[in-house]
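W.,

You were right to be curious about this one. When I first looked at the sequence I had no strong expectations either way, so I just let the prediction run and decided to look at it fresh. Below is the sequence, 86 residues in total, followed by the output.
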Amino acid sequence: MPEISRFFGVIIAMYFNEHNPPHFHVRYNEHKAEIGIITLSLLAGSLPPRVMGLVIEWATIHQEELMADWELARLKANLNAIAPLE
């Protein structure tokens, strides 16, 4: 699962050739979650509220880049790194 960004202990990644809807995976300590790219909503798993807020803030800024990486992942192409939240 290629890592596309990392910030404040949060790891953002995508699998190649994943199922719809478009989404990305988040890992933070023992927590794991899937976040929809279009809706920016929690699809599976859980995150602490503060971390969820940071992830949604980051994803809002980078939504177009996330969709571009989603399309690359579907083609099993190299994904682009996305700037972390600062």
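Here's what jumped out at me. The chain has a mean pLDDT of 96. And, maybe more interesting for your project: The first helix runs from residue 49 to 61.

Coffee later to discuss?

I.
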